[in-house]
Design a protein that fits this description.
Elements (H helix, E strand, L loop, with lengths): L24 H13 L15 E2 L2 E2 L27 E4 L4 H12 L12 E5 L3 H7 L11 E4 L6 H10 L12 E4 L10 E4 L4 H16 L6 E5 L3 H4 L1 H9 L3 E4 L6 H8 L6 E4 L7 H8 L5 E4 L4 H10 L15 E6 L3 H7 L11 E4 L7 H9 L3 E2 L10 E5 L7 H11 L2 E2 L4
Parallel strand pairs: 3-15, 4-5, 4-6, 6-7, 8-9, 8-10, 10-11, 12-13, 12-15, 14-16
Antiparallel strand pairs: 1-2
Length: 418
Amino acid sequence: MPKLPKRTGPRRKVPLPLKLIGGAVLFAAVFLVAAIVGGGNDRGSVDGAAPLVGGDETAAVPERGAPAPERSTDELGYPAFATKNTTRVGGEDAAANAAGVALAVFPATDDAQRPAAVTVVDEANPETAIAAAVLMSSPVRAPILISGEDGMPAVSAEALAALDPTGGASTGGASVFAIGEVPTPAGYATRRVKAEGAAAGAAAIAALRDRLFGSPPDHVVIAPLAEPAFAMPAAAWAARSGDPVLYAGRRKLPKPTVRALRLHPKVPAYVLGPSAAISSEVVREVAAIVPQVCRVAGEDPVANAIALARYEDGEFGWNVNDPGHGFAVVLDERPLDAAAAAPLSAAGTWGPLLLTDDAGTLPAALRDYLLDVKPGYTEDPTRAFYNHVWVIGDREAIEVAQQAEIDSLAELAKIGGR
């Protein structure tokens, strides 16, 4: 197990992120360059082909009409890394994905591109990791890194060293927020959030959010405790809005959630998920505490994520029913990836989290939704709106064919005319 990073001496000026995060965004970019310039043999060739550049040797120029060399698109990095409308954060696990996302949002090549703090969550507790996404919202803006009870994975430790957070007024001086019993990195001002269980952990994170933000939330999201796939879209919304995530059981509202709701009796609550995940009896319990309760739901996790993406009620909800947006797509069996991806919903092409339920096949409901918001133009494509989709996870999570289909659905299309 690698040692946790310890910051000593002056701040580094070396752009360390450019050397890190194998298997995620940066690795894919390096792989692409290496594949194009040449890699795999002593002289840099691919599959035995002549190297593109190397000593006095040059690549042979094929004659017109000759068959193309046998070289897969994967060797060039496309489309496994990126297509014209998608970018993959292709870590082999959630820790690598979180590190890749954190460095994509905060490149950290200079002080202006570093976060003031990061949030370190426990890989064994995806529910509290989802709730911790609220700390990515302004003014705190702390991306998520993932650790475990036995130590911090190398990819997380390297990302933390690269991000090099030093704290600030917006973070109460903390440079690391440690959620639960995760190991505390040495040399960083750490604020630990302790609580027993996911519901209590989420309530403690909500209380920390109140102290750091200095104001009550505009809304509260109540997610299913026993159905993490239905809770996953809440991470993106919490990062975007600053609305905390609390948890409910199927038939009972946990005491920590009750106490958290009573702290803000005038704040409306939005229940995420169908009645099979959070019953109507629980909704009535919530309604007895706060003045307004609304349910946002789909019958399955894919439909549920789309429902929140489409939803609008005043200032609550993405209201993404037209083109010109960013999205992130995650496999519904990987709730930690929802937390890892959350910073992408609060930076760049801010947008909702969508779910797929199969590594190889795009769900019909998701295909229909992406078609509905597909961008188009009539005369000038340079003045059009565009969609961009982040694909989270390696090809074990979402296969290249599915990424290619997502790319096609996000593609700008000509509407009418010649």
